[in-house]
Amino acid sequence: MSEITLRNVIKRYGAVEVVHGIDLDVEEGEFVVLLGPSGCGKTTTLRMVAGLEDVSDGNLSIGETRVNEVAPKDRGVAMVFQNYALYPHMTVRQNMEFALKPLGLSAKEVARRVDEIANMLGLSELMARRPAQLSGGQRQRVAMGRAMVRTPDVFLFDEPLSNLDAKLRTQVRLEIAKLHNRLGTTVLYVTHDQVEAMTLADKIVIMRDGHIEQVGTPEQVYSQPDNMFVATFIGSPPMNMIPAQVRERELQANGLALKVPPRFEGRLAEGQSVTIGIRPNGLSLAGAEMPNAAPARVEVTEYLGNEALLDLRVGPHELIAEVPALGRPAPGTEISVQFDPDAIHLFDTETGASLSR
Amino acid sequence: MAYIRKRNRSIFLIFLLPAILVLFLTTIYPMLYAGYLSFRSYDLAKPFVPRVFVGLSNYQNVLTTGDFLHALKITFQLMAITLSIQLFIGVGLALLVTQRLPGMSIARTLLLIPMMISPVIVGLVWLFLYFPELGYLNYFLSYIGIGPISWITSPDWALWAIAIADIWQWTPFIMMGTAAALTSLSPEPYEAAKIDGNTRWQVFRYVTLPQLKPVLVSLLFLRAIDAFKIYDIIFVLTKGGPGDSTEVLSLYIYRQSFTFWQMGVGAAASFVSLIIIVVLITFFFKSLNRDPMQS
Question: Which helix (H) or strand (E) holds B276?
Answer without folding.
Answer: helix B263-290
